[in-house]
Structure formats: C-alpha cells, structure tokens
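Reading a protein record of the kind used here takes little practice once its layout is understood. An example of such a record is reproduced below.
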Amino acid sequence: MKISRELKTGIVVVIAIGLLIYGLFFLKGMDLFGEKREFYAVYEKIGTLAPSNSVKINGLKIGIVREVSFLNDKGNRILVKFHIQNNDVLIPENTVAKITTDLLGSASVIFELGDHRDHPAQNGDTLISEIDKDLQSKVDEQIAPLKIKTEQLISEIDSVVKIVQVIFNEDARENLRSSFTSIKRSFGNFEKTSLKIDTLIGNQSHKISNIFSKISSIVDNLEASNDDLTNMLGNFSNVSDSLAAANITQTIQKAENAMASVTEIVDKINRGEGSLGLLINNDSLYYNINDASYNLEVLLDDYKRNPHRYLHFSVFGRKVKKKVLKATDVFDDKEVEKIRKLIKE
C-alpha cells in the first residue's frame, strides 16, 4: 500500500507538534510521562511566585509550582500546588514549604525537610507554609543597626563641632593665650628654681658629703652593735615570756575579790552596822564622851581646890570620923543632872 505524500507530511507535522509540546513542558520542568506527587501549601501572600517556578531541596530542583489560586474563604488566602517529579526524595509530614526571592526578584520554593522521617507526607497533603524575608527586608535588617550607629555618630560629631566652636571663639582664644603664657612663665620659674637648687647643692656639697658620712658611721655602729641589739631583743622576749607565764589573771582576780570585800565593809560602816559603824554614824557617843570629859575636868579642878574633901589622914593616928559626901557638896545642880543622864545612857 502506497502512502501518499500528504499523509507523510501530516504525520511529520503531528510528531513535530508533539515534540514541541513535550519540549515546552520539559523546559518548564514538567515530565508528561513520569510519575508525579502533588503537595499543597496555603499562604497569606506569595510575592512574585508564579506557576512553573522551581521547587528545590538543598539547592537541587525536584519539581515545579503547578498552580496558584485563591481559596474560597474570607481571608483571601492563596493555595499553591506543587508537582514533585523526583520520587526518590523522602518528604516528612512536617516539611516547611518556604517561598524565597533571589537578587533578581525571581521567586522559588524551598522545601525544608522536617525530622519526622518515620511519617512521610502522602500524595495530596498540605505542607507547612512560610515566607522568607525578601531582599529589601534583609537589606533593611542589615542596614538598620548601621543607620542607628550613623545617627549616633552624627549626633556626637555635632556635639564635638559645637564644643570646638565654643573653644575657638574670641574669648576662648584669649583664655588659651593667657593659659599658654602662664604655663610658659611657670616653666621659666621652674627652670630658675632648678638652677638655684643646683647652685645650692654645689655650694653645700661638702656638708651633704659630711651628712652622708655620718649616716654611714651610724649604720656601721648599728652593724657593730648588732649582737647587743640581738641580746636586748632576747631579754625583752624573756621578760615577755615571764609576764605571759605569770598568773596575772589569778592575781587580778584576788585583787578584785579584796576590793569587793573592802567595798562590802565600807557599805556596812555606812549603814551603821557593827561597832565601827555605830561609832562613825552615831553622834550620841561623841556627845557623851564630850560631857564625861567636861565633868572629869570639873572634878579634877574641885579636887585641886578642896583636897580635904577626898583625902582624910591624921598625923597622930587619930581616927577621924568619916564624913559622907553628897553629890551636891562637890557639883552644882546642872553638873549633877549631866552625870545622871550620863549614867542612864
């Protein structure tokens, strides 16, 4: 059977169109004849993400974004459908589908694999969605601290400029000029003082030499007396040991006990206890002794004037009749009353 030329041409055209379609899908990363897995993710916004954008894991392309559409909810969220053509990749159920944007603004999806490898995601599951910061946000994040530091630096520079302006005004320059003049004068005075000190040291060098000689002699004497000083320190140490060995505490305790006893005796005397306390605190004894002394003085005076009242003797041994004396013959009434009071007491 002879095939017509037109049929051959049609077959070639159909094959060419099929190859063209397959090539277009292949360039988009879609394998029309391979087994595919489908996953979904829901985003609030997707930026520049569009169908045919690549899906990667660790930089390796494993699929494409197949479809982008709105969800039928009030939040206007966006549903993204992924076609994964690499069936050798294990995708855990907690994998994160993160949208990223490169420097040229092209968006792609990065699968950040989770750690639930025992629970892989099934065909048609919805993955966790996340949006990476765009380039502008990253730049702003990096530039923000630099901006703050720059503003602080500008503020500090402004303060320094103000200070410099204040310093270099006319009054400040005059003050600086006066200060430098004073400093120059001070250095001149210091130079003169240094010259005077040098002159003084030069003139008194002999005396200074004698002073150092005497100091050296004193040091030599101390070195020569080192043994004596050692003995003295040893004696002091022995005295200290003797004092430490003496029972000073017991001696002080005995002294305190003695003082306490003396204090107790003095307290008793002050309270009028005992003979000594009565003698010191009772003035009646003083008055009684005073009256007795007075009466004794009167009696002796009467004895001197009238001895015959108290002594009776005879030259010839004649017995003299004794005369009984009465108190009223020697003392007057006041003296007799005092003697009676003294006897009663």
